[in-house]
Design goal:
By secondary structure, this protein is of the alpha/beta class. The protein is built from twelve helices and 17 strands. The protein binds pyridoxal-5'-phosphate.
């Protein structure tokens, strides 16, 4: 008899964004002539930077000739891209990361989901609340949690991110082995200072723990004092894995390219307490289960680091940050408390309603604007909503004008 993985039955009913999609679909079916503006899901709207398009076209032409055609590439990514990432994203910021510590992939979602298979099923896990749901759900699927009760899974250590701690979690009160951190944060838009990240790195070093640092929104940091990488913190190489993505940086959500950095000095332990380097383990997983990102896409990603590419991706992030500013100003003007939208593309708003979904329904029904209910990201998100800056300027302006009328 084929048995199912019963841990799947613990997953809470449905994934946040499919819930939203269902409500929007039902609303649109009932009101076919209303134009709905979506500031909910974090998908980009602007086209790929011209430098990426030119590089991709050129690479497609190479695939058309037997002299330059490429078949399977190295699973870890082509050397040209790994070297560009190490030099520009890390060494240029004083972080000692080498090209062969970079693993190119087709998404930070899959990497943050897949990394947990390197760790024991007994691992004690800390997750922020609110949180990007992938970190939690993948550990539920793998059987590392108990059942859900009141929106929280047994066995996980939740780290509240609230207005009181500036949405940067405090160190856990119970001992943990694996800590998920995400800065700039989805959903709160919060960033962590050098001192705050240093505290986490010191905690991990003192407790033989590991930090999984998701920096998918790094490109939106404008404050020069905020670290872009966990590896800007001394000692982080030994206790942290970092995830990055070209999705939000360069509009690659539909093109798919990302990378994970596993430094060679980064360790976990076996039952005897001996160090086990994680780099060979991730290399083994990656080469066994993944066959690489397509050559034209890797060439497009490499172009992000060319002089024109750098200017174009900066302009792209600046454009979305301009939207975020309009959202922040409108919502603050209406008297709501908010955070984010300065070094990240999300604005996190404390609503007047106890239930985030009520506020969601109100904006959908009265303003035809889709936002994201904060409760979908965790218990601490209840009463909050997230507004995404990913849309055209015209749509953001129109959405804010409608919200102004309704609130
Ligand atoms: C925090 C965070 N990490 C990772 C991802 C996924 O990135 P990718 O498109 O590279 O899979 C997202 C996408 O919304 C995200 O918000």
């Amino acid at each position: 008899m084929i048995l199912v993985n019963e841990h799947y039955a613990k997953l809470q009913a449905s994934y946040l964004f499919s819930d939203i999609a269902k409500r929007v679909k039902a609303y649109q079916a009932a009101h076919p002539d209303q134009r709905v503006i979506r500031l909910g899901i974090g998908d980009v709207t602007e086209p790929l930077p011209p430098a990426c398009i030119a590089a991709m076209h050129h690479a497609v032409d190479e695939m058309a000739s037997s002299a330059t055609f490429r078949g399977y590439g190295p699973e870890q990514g082509y050397d040209f891209l790994r070297a560009a990432i190490a030099a520009n994203d890390y060494q240029a910021r004083g972080a000692q990361i080498e090209a062969d510590e970079v693993f190119v992939s087709d998404g930070a979602k899959c990497d943050t989901a897949n990394i947990q298979e390197l760790f024991s099923s007994k691992t004690r896990i800390a997750v922020p609340d609110p949180v990007y749901p992938v970190y939690v759900d993948t550990n539920v699927m793998a059987g590392r949690t108990g059942k859900a009760r009141n929106g929280r899974y047994g066995g996980l250590v939740y780290l509240p991110c609230t207005a009181e701690n500036g949405y940067v979690p405090d160190l856990p009160e119970k001992p943990v082995d694996l800590i998920y951190l995400c800065f700039p944060n989805n959903p709160t838009g919060a960033t962590a200072t050098r001192e705050q990240l240093t505290r986490w790195v010191e905690y991990a070093r003192a407790n033989q723990a590991l930090i999984l640092f998701d920096a998918a929104y790094e490109a939106f940091i404008r404050d020069p004092a905020i670290p872009h990488s966990i590896y800007e913190i001394e000692g982080a190489r030994d206790v942290a894995i970092e995830f990055r993505s070209f999705s939000k940086t360069a509009g690659f959500t539909g093109t798919r390219c990302a990378f994970t950095v596993v430094p060679k000095s980064c360790m976990a332990y076996n039952r005897a307490g001996e160090c086990v380097p994680l780099h060979p383990l991730w290399n083994r997983r990656h080469t066994t289960k993944f066959n690489g990102v397509s050559y034209p896409v890797q060439r497009a990603a490499e172009a992000v680091y060319s002089p024109e590419g750098k200017q174009q991706v900066q302009a792209l992030a600046d454009f979305y940050l301009g939207n975020a500013k309009i959202i922040r100003e409108t919502i603050a003007d209406l008297g709501y408390q908010l955070t984010g939208g300065v070094n990240g593309p999300y604005v996190w708003i404390r609503t007047t309603q106890k239930d985030s979904w009520k506020f969601f329904d109100k904006l959908l029904e009265k303003a035809q604007v889709v936002i994201t209910p904060g409760s979908g990201f965790g218990r601490c998100g209840q009463g909050y909503v997230r507004i995404s800056a990913f849309n055209s300027r015209a749509n953001v302006e129109e959405a804010m004008a409608r919200i102004r009328k309704v609130l």
